Amino acid sequence: MKKGTVFIGLALAGSLALTGCTGGSGGSGGSASGGLSGEPATGGTLRVLQNADFSHLDPAQGFDGGVNNFYRLIYRTLTTQGAGEGAEGTEIVPDLATELGTPNEDNTVWTYTLKDDVFFEDGTPITSKDVKFGVERSLDPSISIGSPYAKIVLDIPEGYEGYYLSGPLDSIETPDDRTIVFHLNQPYADFDAVVGQAPFTPFPADADVTTTSIDQQPIASGPYRVTEYQRGSTLVLERNEHWDPETDEVRTAAPDSFEWTFGLDAATIDERMIAGQGEDANAIAGSVAPASIARIQTPEIQSRTVAGLQGCTTYMGLNTTKPGMDNVLVRQAINVAMDKEAVKDATGGSQLADIATTIMPPTVVGREEFDLYGTEDQTGDPEKAKELLAEAGYPDGFEFTLDIRNQPKMQAQAEAVQQSLAKAGITVNFNLIDTSTYYEVIGTLSQQHDAAITGWCPDWPTGATFLPPLFEGSQIFEKGNSNIAQLNDPAINERMAEIRLMTDVDEANAAWGALDEQIMELAPQVPLLYEKTVMVVGDNIAGAFSHAGFSGGIDYVSVGLKSAE
Amino acid sequence: MTTVPSELAVETEAKGALPSGGAPTPARRVLHSLRTSPGAIASIVIIVAIALMAILAPVLSAITGWDPYEFDPTAIDSDLGGLPIGPLGGVSAEHWFGVEPGNGRDIFIRVAYGAQVSLLIAVSATLVTTTIGVVLGMIAGYFGGIADQVISRVMDFLMAFPTLIFMIALLSALPAGNRPALLVIVLSIFGWPYTARIIRGQTMSLRNSEFVEAARASGAKPLRIAFREVLPNLRGTIIVLATLAVPGYIGTEAGLSFLGVGVTPPTPSWGQMISTAVGWYAVDPMYFLIPGTFLFLTVFAFTVLGDHLRKALDTGDAA
Amino acid sequence: MLFYLLRRVLAGILVLFLISLFTFAIFFWLSPDPAVQICGKTCTPERIDQIRSQLGLDLPFLQQYWQFVSGIFVGRTYGEGAGAITCAAPCLGFSFQTNQSVTDMIADRMPVSVTVAVGAAVLWLLAGVGGGLLSAVKQGTGWDRTVMFGALAGISLPNYFVALLLQYVLVVQLQWLPFPHAASFTEDPVAWFQAYLMPWLVLAFGYAAMYSRIVRTNVIDTLGQNFMRTARAKGLDQSLVMRRHALRPSLTPVVTLFGMDFAGLLGGALITETVFGLNGVGKLAADSITKNDQPVIMGVTLLAGLLVVIGNMVVDVAYTGLDPRVRVRSA
């Protein structure tokens, strides 16, 4: 049924997007695709230069591309994403489990078998009970701020508050130490992706594991264990001797250790990576700033540059409940007026972003390419927008308030939006929101304004984790709302329910792709960009590539050193 | 940037006092002394030029054909991260000072509008702090007693404050609202004691001078003495203090905008431009050099002028 | 003398108390709910309530303030049971965004800030006093004019602008220095020196300019005073006169100033640390302000206040020792 074949066509879509952008840059050939060839040598210390520390070491709590990428070094789950560029990386493959899950007829009961010879860092074998405990622990209200899918699809009784407050969960059965059975509250064809989410990480069911202990001292099931951690400054991983490479087809885990340095300025990181001197030859880092793009065009630096799509869409959500914005013609006018080139340039130009025309990015399986509101050169069509506005009853222009985050890149994007819409007689006022509360404010119905610039990354690259959170009527919440368009369209809602019942994943993925266009006809958002990562790595780095499942970051479990000293 | 005009306070304190009381210095002599100093003339020229640039910003915008928010995609190279095309950050006949990377906005016009914001905030803050400082300083110095105790304690307290950190904290906690007004208020709260302290000291010495004694003996009311007799004698001090306060506030405002708690975008501001330019310093140095040079010239000119005024008033006294 | 000291200490404590109350009040009333911020993107109402009670955010203002103050002296515990977090005295608060006690965070960053501050202070004292003396002795000459013009320019140049200029010239154009990045003194002293050189220069620049102006004025004043004329009239050697009689009274105000400025460096170094990406307390404050991590902002503000108050006291005491004319100065 699913078995990985679902991701055919992704590589093609990816390369299309990369080469399809207008102009095509001189000298960017090396960075436009993929990674550095060459097998990493075993051993050595790989360094990572990073601005901010990881959000949480506890997999129940951390929930972003960067930390998920990191979790794979120290944790294992029943399934995981592949290790490879493009489609290979976003394919769901078995990890602790011998193979992908076996569902019952209607996809409501899923059974997995654990591999033999898998151990925690202290040598204790990992059993199905540990996986069960890990999930139960993650449901404790004090830490359940990570990936929400366990909460959403498992059959959990009303008022269940995790292992410590409510005890074991009946809907996860462990008939023996190798077998685990999950009972769901709905048919869920994508469940193999769910058990690969971080909260499904096993922890010893009998040890001194508390709600807070893992965040301080993780218990490794993956190839490395945390040996030193100073929050905000350094993190050191060393080999977990009890991890057996024979049991792991995903992780290369070539270096003997990893060393993170946190708290470095973005500019400092760029400078160091460009210079690549001394120990920085063994270092990798995140995407460079726009200002550094011009400096990495030399052949030497291009030869150690890795690039890829983040796998996310940056968009401007339009709040369909606000006066004026509730008119589809107005929303279409805004789409037509948008100068996406300007937004792209403000974000860092063609090397750091492609122009978006669809809600879902090219990395999503089943996504269809279309452009309902395309204009010449993507620079917007003020005249056509004015016509649409006049038709909508706003012949003298329109005015709205845009929520923006107090952060340079977002401000630059907002200024580009403001400028391009001004040409069509649309006045954009800014509501500047503090970085730390931005998502909270735009996710609170009573506080959000007419529009907001934000982004969405799928938790795994299918429409199931992209369209419903953003556009399903039942997903409008007073707080923590992701449907910031507040779209509640009966036809769309109905179609989503239908797709969810499909047991054939391919069919479902294609249906989501078609639904994308159906939603865009209502113009509840303006897709702006598919942002890219461009990363410079050290001279001695091998096996580095941008992983589409981890916001385009370098896949940690595959990267290593060319020569391990 | 250091905080409010600490340099000013410190220097005047170290010197004992500014132009000490006594007979008012004839304005003519001061003007003459300024006119003969090339430094003073140069600084006045710079100040006038920058003030004109600020006032005439809309006219300049009409002449160059660029408004401060207008993008110019043809001036930047999208494939190089949005770097300005051409030498010196895109300097051309069209863009006299080049353009901003990433959007191609005209730097010349943004600097001109930035001057508006800078001067407006600094001059307003100077007016507010000078007024409060003079009034409270005179009350404390002339009446002494409880009034002096209270005002002096408040001043000590405000001056013992970790000002910069606190201003940033305060501005970041305040809702966005009207930023320039908020900036003026915050700058004023921490700025007035520096004026008040000096005014207080001079009022105290003037209180015991012969002409004040004489006025008192003739039965004049205290308030009348304070404003009719004492205030005119403080004129020189006030002018010097105000002149030296302006650059302090310009610098602090730019510093706060640099740190991201000042004027909000897209309003152009020098500090904010330099802050954005930080990332670009290696590939597009003109982006920080131009607003930085304007900021420097403005602060420099006001400081030089203040210095000269003080000297002129000083020698006036000595003569 | 003892009474005087006691009075100074009491006044200092009062100032600190007011600073803390002020800062606390501002965040209490003006700032968005910290519980909401801590909770993050996938928040639940239960979690918000939990954080609120854990942090004591559900209590009235004075009670919260009291908890904060008592935490400084006796430490405090957030929450109860297995998930409780203890914060040992002196507890300046607990940052739930980073899961660290504010005291620890500041202590971690302190060495960098001290390095920046001490290095810069040495530089600016040398340059400021040296430049001022030179200017005063060579009054009216080209030396004097050059130093004074430089000083005027120095006090007018914002330090972030100087930082960018230096970086552009020394790192990009001349390539005399590598891009600064933190290195440990014991492991690699050369890299350490290179990393701190520019921050020292930048931070010292403005202060040096200011000090040279003040020193010059003071020395010229002193030289013009009666006792100096007498000393010279007695036929004492010029340089001896300078050393014995002119330096001491001229530099006394500099000591006052230096104490205050050094104590205020936590705030003064904020921009320098931020521009050069040095992880000191100033950058901690700037970062926490961006993230709106209130406990940390509170802690740093209070610490900065404490340093200023202590600086004031030390200066007063030192002043009485240095200048025989001032034995007791009113507070």
UniProtKB/TrEMBL annotation, chain A:
- GO CC terms: ATP-binding cassette (ABC) transporter complex; periplasmic space
The stretch of residues making up the signal peptide is 1-19
Q: Read off the Gene3D superfamilies from this record.
A: Dipeptide-binding Protein, Domain 3, Periplasmic binding protein-like II
CDD domains, per the entry = PBP2_clavulanate_OppA2
Q: Which PROSITE patterns match?
A: PROKAR_LIPOPROTEIN
Question: GO BP, one example?
Answer: peptide transport
Q: Where is the Solute-binding protein family domain?
A: 91-475
One GO MF term, please? peptide transmembrane transporter activity
Q: Which UniProt keywords apply?
A: Signal
Task: Please report the name of this protein according to its UniProt entry.
Answer: ABC transporter substrate-binding protein
- What's the source species' lineage? Bacteria, Bacillati, Actinomycetota, Actinomycetes, Micrococcales
Automatic annotation (TrEMBL), chain B:
GO cellular component: a single term: plasma membrane
Q: Quote the CDD domains the UniProt record gives.
A: TM_PBP2
Q: Where is the secretion signal located?
A: none
- What's the protein's topology in the membrane? Multi-pass membrane protein
Q: Where in the cell is it found?
A: Cell membrane
- A biological-process GO annotation: transmembrane transport
Pfam families xref list: BPD_transp_1 (PF00528), OppC_N (PF12911)
Q: Indicate what this protein is called per its UniProt record.
A: ABC transporter permease subunit
Q: Does the keyword Transmembrane apply?
A: yes
Domain of life the protein comes from: Bacteria
Q: Which organism is it from?
A: Agromyces agglutinans
Keywords annotated in UniProt: Cell membrane, Membrane, Transmembrane, Transmembrane helix, Transport
Q: Quick one: where is this thing mainly located? A: membrane
Similarity comment:
Belongs to the binding-protein-dependent transport system permease family.
Residues crossing the lipid bilayer are 39-63, 119-143, 155-174, 180-199, 230-250, 286-305
Known InterPro entries for this protein? BP-dependent_transpt_permease, MetI-like, MetI-like_sf, OppC_N
Record bears the keyword Membrane: yes
Q: Where is the ABC transmembrane type-1 domain?
A: 115-306
Automatic annotation (TrEMBL), chain C:
Report the membrane topology from the UniProt record.
Multi-pass membrane protein
**Name by which UniProt lists this protein:** ABC transporter permease subunit
Keyword field contains GTP-binding: no
Taxonomic lineage is:
Bacteria, Bacillati, Actinomycetota, Actinomycetes, Micrococcales
**Transmembrane annotation, as ranges:** 9-30, 114-137, 149-170, 190-210, 251-276, 296-319
Report the residue ranges that make up the ABC transmembrane type-1 domain in this protein. 110-319
According to its UniProt entry, this protein's organism is: Agromyces agglutinans
Q: Write out the entry's keywords from A to Z.
A: Cell membrane, Membrane, Transmembrane, Transmembrane helix, Transport
Q: Which family does it belong to?
A: Belongs to the binding-protein-dependent transport system permease family.
Q: Which domain of life is it from?
A: Bacteria
Which N-terminal stretch is annotated as signal sequence? Answer: none
Compartments reported by the entry: Cell membrane
